[in-house]
Specification:
This protein has about 200 residues and is an alpha+beta fold. It has one domain (about 1-190). Helices cover about 35% and strands about 15% of the residues. It contains 6 helices and 4 strands, in the order αβααβαβααβ. It has a 4-stranded antiparallel beta sheet with strand order 1-2-4-3, with helices on one face.
Length: about 200
């Protein structure tokens, strides 16, 4: 078990993951007011992206999907960047974080932890144009991931619970995601060096 803990923390560090904290999955509560932001469709992805509302399900459906999970790992990845002007760099860091989440999932599965739900930061951008806009199927159904925001989680409020900075920085981008687990994984409690217990 100690070897598993060391391998997970070592891999996260190698991938540049700066924040790696355990939390209770019950803290993830979909909120209508967050979903309402998506309905405003300021980003243009509402109805037009497989990993965005309403295609990711209603709040009730999301709550049902969350029910089996008891534990999670909060993950953050940051890079120095001109956030307002470097759109390509911004997109690349988002895709990079997405890939890091997938790699951590692979490591966990290799250790026999199979019931996972990984969430990325921001909108999935594995494709230049999401197939939902073209009425085509997703070419990466095993790699596409939702974000915490897309399932109506108040990410800023969630970070507040951990005392983590959630303020906008014009010279640094920070992506926040997570991986959820079922408690029937006996090895979960040994995974994380930095443990933050919220009752």
């Amino acid at each position: 078990m100690d070897g598993l803990k060391r391998s997970i923390c070592k891999r996260a560090g190698q991938l540049g993951i700066e924040t790696c904290l355990e939390f209770k999955a019950g803290l993830l509560v979909p909120e209508q007011r967050i979903r309402d932001f998506c309905v405003e469709n300021k980003c243009g992805n509402y109805c037009n992206h497989f990993m965005c509302p309403p295609r990711v399900g209603s709040l009730e459906e999301i709550e049902t999907r969350l029910e089996p999970f008891q534990r999670g790992i909060l993950l953050q990845y940051s890079k120095l960047l001109d956030v307002r002007n470097d759109n390509e760099g911004l997109k690349q860091t988002k895709v990079d974080f997405h890939c890091k989440i997938l790699r951590l999932e692979e490591l966990l599965r290799s250790e026999g932890i199979n019931n996972l739900w990984g969430m990325i930061g921001g909108t999935c951008e594995l494709c230049e144009v999401c197939g939902a806009r073209l009425d085509e199927p997703c070419p990466y159904p095993d790699k596409a991931r939702t974000s915490m925001e897309s399932i109506a989680i108040d990410v800023l409020g969630f970070l507040d619970k951990f005392g983590l900075d959630n303020k906008f920085c014009p010279d640094r981008i920070t992506w926040t995601g997570c991986i959820l687990f079922c408690d029937n994984s006996q090895s979960f409690r040994f995974l994380i060096d930095s443990h933050f217990d919220i009752k």
